[in-house]
Amino acid sequence: MQFSGLHHVSAMTASAERNYQFYTEILGMRLVKKTVNQDSHHMYHLFYADEIGRPGTDLTFFEMLGIGRTYRGNNSISLTGLRVTNDEAINYWVKRFDEFAVNHQGVSEQLGRKVIFFEDPEGQRLMLVSDQNNTGVEAGIPWDKSSVPVEFGIAGLGPVRLTVPDLIPTEDKLVNLMNFRHVGNDPAYQDGQPNVEVYQTGEGGTGAEIHVEVRTDLPRERPGRGSVHHVAFRVKDRAELEAWAEKIKKERLPNSGIVDRYYFEAFYFREPNGILYELSTDEPGFLTDEPEETLGERLALPPFIEHKREEIEAILKPLNSKK
């Protein structure tokens, strides 16, 4: 069995409103689903993606009011990649980041690709990566009503970086349990530390890649605003998810069992270095309860919590999208 690539990455924000403004107005992503955390209905769960929220294009955020800052460190998902079409797009984004005073490190190269490391206003660590030479998993399609021209728009998730104190247990689960392939390495981000190891699944490429950074000089991360909660991988359907769940349960790793998230079905488990993984089905997707034209404009609630709408809407502060 092979995953089809990355499905989504979920992170934390202290302000849904400021988060919405940055990811839609500056990054030009589409808010394809405005809903709530199904395990804690008082907080927003926002999904930013391509034009219709294709699997592999979703960067999501839980709003956690009052959450403190992140103390960066080990045992963490420490970087989220975002794909753009080509090197010309990378040049466009350098200028846009300068225009909007976005904290970035300029253009550099990683594994033969042009990249820009940058941060959102809460210190969320992000990377734009060029698909100029990508031959792997197909990208999504940026929204044509975005604030960013389609040809330069964000087309999906790129490589996700894990930072861990010991490579062996993480590599063991990626390769021997999850069927990732080790495809190479890249120089360390910090002098004196081991190379960053690179793993791919499925068709490979920027949309199916995990980078593992080993840091022997860091304490365990204390998560807060701007930190990542989990990374999810794509499985085709319920049958495939059940097969993966059975395989992972035999490893006796802490897991959730299969959970119905309405827009997809999910299975969560934690590997030995503390990284939380999710396996998510491609179907049914975000068009199941809203038409494409108005995705993300009103609060969407799955049927099993729709009866709480009045109570939930009374708690949530409206965003500058349609209610």
Q: What descriptors fit this protein?
A:
8-stranded mixed beta sheet, 16 strands, single chain, alpha+beta
Give a quick precis of the structure.
The protein has 323 residues and is α+β, with helices and mostly antiparallel strands. The protein has one domain (6-224, 286-315): Roll (2,3-Dihydroxybiphenyl 1,2-Dioxygenase, domain 1). It has helices at residues 16-26, 87-99, 167-177, 238-249, 309-315, and strands at 6-13, 30-37, 40-49, 58-63, 76-84, 104-110, 113-119, 125-130, 156-164, 181-186, 196-200, 209-214, 228-235, 255-260, 264-270, 276-284.
Question: How do the helices and strands line up, and which of them pair or pack?
Answer:
Elements (H helix, E strand, L loop, with lengths): L5 E8 L2 H11 L3 E8 L2 E10 L8 E6 L12 E9 L2 H13 L4 E7 L2 E7 L5 E6 L25 E9 L2 H11 L3 E6 L9 E5 L8 E6 L13 E8 L2 H12 L5 E6 L3 E7 L5 E9 L24 H7 L8
Protein name: Ring-cleaving dioxygenase
GO molecular function, one term: dioxygenase activity
Organism: Amphibacillus indicireducens
